[in-house]
Amino acid sequence: MMSLRQFAKHLVVLVGLTALPVLSNAGELGPVPPKAKMKASEKTECVEPVGDMRKNHMEFLLHKRDETMREGVRTKTHSLAECIDCHVTPDKKGEFARYGDDKHFCSSCHNYAAVNVDCFDCHSDLPESASSKLRTLNQKNPHHKMTEGGKK
Amino acid sequence: MSNSEQNTNEYRRKFLAQSAAVAGLAIAPGIILNQVAHAKSDSDKATSANRWGMLINTNKCASGCTDCVTACKTENAWGSVDGNTSSETHSSKEQQAQWIRKVTITDKQTGHVQSLPLMCQHCETAPCVDVCPTGASMKREDGIVQVDKHICIGCRYCMMACPYKARSFVHEKLELQKATAPRGIGTVESCNMCAHRVDKDQDPACVEACNKAEHGAMLFGDLKDANSAISRELKKHGGEQIRADLGLNTGVRYQGL
Questions:
Q1: Chain A: residue nearest B48 by CA?
Q2: pLDDT digits over B49-88, tens only?
Q3: Residue A36 and residue A10: Cα distance in Å, rounded?
Q4: Which of A57, A143, B73, B109 shows the smallest number of beta carbons within 10 Å?
Q5: B169: domain range?
């Protein structure tokens, strides 16, 4: 038979063990995407309500992609380039996280949810200003020096 | 002059001044409307009211000048400029993308040498669009032929079908693409007449570069607009299609061939 004292001791240990994982994860439940550059307008956070964007951004992007690609509509709302421009921001040192890194806006959720996208096989994962800077840098210090038309 | 006569004259003067002002107002909106009709706003779709085309004068095209090719590379971030590349670094020369190239033709009989840029000819009945199994190879309403890389499976039938050898396949993983020119591994690509620039009422990068170099060998415009510079020039002096025998009705025409 367990004494009352022993029971109390066990109870403390049990409660402590249960609480441990919750406490250690405090404040980090789920992904933490970086802050966007600015609000879409004075009244709205993003181009659509935040909840809608979280759930349906892929639908918006898909619709816009066909409109732009096939019909030549060049409006900015729902354009991937505009999303990247506003949401992919540099850290305090001025450096950009790349797609795949937990600190990259898209990856912060996509890594957590284990969802792979192929957007960045063809589209740049950085705002145009940052891409063009890196492009010039790579041209000056190429990882492979090439002759016109390439190596043999 | 009597008093009543003076009143009548004053009345007439006022009436004339007012009618002139009204006429002025009526003309002004007409002029503005005319200008608006030519500009495409961002939300407008490309329509079949236009057909974009190019006219290349080989007599004005300087041999040795590759400004159009360089401009295309810079605009769309493909290939290497001055021996430096930021895109394909692992592909061989044969594998690397080539959206536009300079071709030199020599007449063996006379020794006459011609130099001309060759790129996608934006056919009306494009063989690449015909053969595509997924609908990725497509023609926009305004005649621009391009690849929708979202649904391209990289089978390369279109490359086989193209009589102008205008298309390339991307063999390696790329990064840092231009926002206006997405391109990536496993898809086919080619000149899209700088659709992103055309949608903003600008000339394609190659045409702009040719004009900047003061060669003026390339003319871009609307083939359906009888008053456009390209239509007037074609009507006056004509323009040839390369491989006209195929009956593809190309959007890119040449003079001096």
A1: A71
A2: 999 999 999 999 999 999 999 999 999 999 887 666 657 8
A3: 48
A4: B109
A5: 52-255
